[in-house]
Amino acid sequence: MTVSTTTAGRHSASLDLGVIGNCSIAALIDRRAHIVWGCFPRFDRDPVFCSLIDNKADDGDALPEKGFFAIEMVGMTRCEQSYLDNTAILSSVLSDDSGNAIEILDFAPRFVRYERFFRPPQLVRRVRRISGRPRIRVIVKPCLGLGEEPDEMTRGSNHVRFVGADQTIRLTTDAPISYVIEGIPFAVDRPFSFFIGSDEALRAEIETTSREFLDKTTDYWRDWVRSLSIPFDWQREVIRAAITLKLCSFEESGAIVAALTTSIPEAPGTQRNWDYRFCWLRDAYFVVHALNRLGTTRTMEDYLGFITNIVDTFTESGAEHLPPLYPITRGGALDEFEAPNLSGYRGHQPVRFGNGAATQIQNDGYGAVVLAATHSFFDQRLIQPGKDSLFGQLERMGELAIAYFDKPDAGPWELREKEAVHSFSSVMCWAACDRLARIAGTLGRADRKEYWKGESKRLKGVISDHIWNEEKGHFVSTFGGTELDATLLLFAELGFVKPDDPRFIATVEAIGRDLTRGDLLLRYATQDDFGFMHTGFLICAFWYVDALHAIGRSDEAKELFGRILKRRNNFGLLSEDADLKTGELWGNFPQTYSMVGLINSAMRLSRNWEEAF
């Protein structure tokens, strides 16, 4: 997929962005090949490049004041961008109307070195002349702290150091360093490379290192893609989604973040601006399911390791309520605060860091953990399969599920001012008991199997009585309630009901009638703490596709899936939300949930390889 920008102007912020990374850091690149977002030395640290969330709606053609890395070709009128096939390496070809052209290759080094993964907190920008005598101007304006400019800038023969109170960033290059510092245009008469990241000296020749890193990173990604189990249909879409999911994984701990950004609003002017650079337990089941289908066992096992470490720590703590989200290293605070000196995405404040949802009670977490960890007991490919000791820890999750399945919580949509007994949370608690019975069976623990089967049956009876509304003729989102929400679409996938259960079919049809808006879905149609919904939540659209397929409306599901894919940006990526009328992307980006939804739906709907030819 090649995308083209035919104007030299327009710096207005948008989510038509490409992503690069190496499972340690990541960066977002706009349609002019400017780096507009990136945190060092890991996803959840302060953004060094923050212009994505520090701009105004009327900024027009003006360059941002700070928080970006631009390589601009003098006189550029066109920018064509594409990923190198089956990689996370982005190519941007800049050209003018006089026959001058350059290529910028952007990537984060990732490959095996000394029998371990080499993934430094570093980005590489490699520039080469394609034709004519092009000239470039390099402008590097990082921030250190939350939108703060560096305290000091020092230079060496081939590097510049941007010094702040808590971090120093180093740019190393074989381009003329004075031209770079002063923003003076110069000719691209040979390849130039730019390494930017942690304050470490590059201990080898710049051009040789740049070329070696590029070649090895290319080989790594293509080998990784070659190992994927992909569907026959929608191969390119699934490959790009899989690479993006991989880029959202923090390999050191195994965590996978919900998104790489903070405070991209779910809809303009709504105050729904949240920090998503953390790991949500709710996502665990869906992420592990997608990774399992793709055959990415290493990433899946790393993620399961993160989840089971949470179980260990929680059990040792003796706490009663499992936090719904965690920092990517499980340590540190998630206290939510605002950064008023950052103007926001298109001027939409507040810009928030941390996430107050970490202190909420969300009872679905017990089921999410058990469902994710269940893979450890059944997947024979894993190096560290589940054992009796892990089962004992998971039983603690099950007992808490029993205790809280019918208690009020903030629910799957993390309501900040309201609590209720949410149907999804209750069904997830049931799922914890159901899966523990299955695990006990595979471990030969007949007594525990019978216990958990009994509890599963009991919970199912109570829940069923409270979440079915006879007058409405469908399941409802809260005990004794009347309203719908999109999580009800998951009940068949979770095994709570069979897909041909008339109650489930009626619920899917009701959601199609009341929550769909064109090709998109609302999470719910009721007013919450911030008003009514103005955008469609993309994962809900994929859940609806899956539910249609499950109840036998497969042709309709495939047609809808094809239309939803058109909501992806020009790089094949999705954020959290989309405008109901225009389809414009909103919400944090790229959204892991959305990419997982794409993968799971494609896997379900595709012809198998034997059918295809």
UniProtKB/TrEMBL annotation:
Can you provide one Gene Ontology molecular function annotated for this UniProt record?
hydrolase activity, hydrolyzing O-glycosyl compounds
Database matches in InterPro entries: 6-hairpin_glycosidase_sf (IPR008928), 6hp_glycosidase-like_sf (IPR012341), GH15-like (IPR011613), Trehalase-like_N (IPR045582)
Biological process terms in GO annotation: carbohydrate metabolic process
GH15-like domain ranges (all copies): 238-601
Which stretches make up the Trehalase-like N-terminal domain? 17-173
Under which name does UniProt file this protein? Answer: Glucoamylase (Glucan-1,4-alpha-glucosidase), GH15 family
**Species, as recorded:** Bosea lathyri
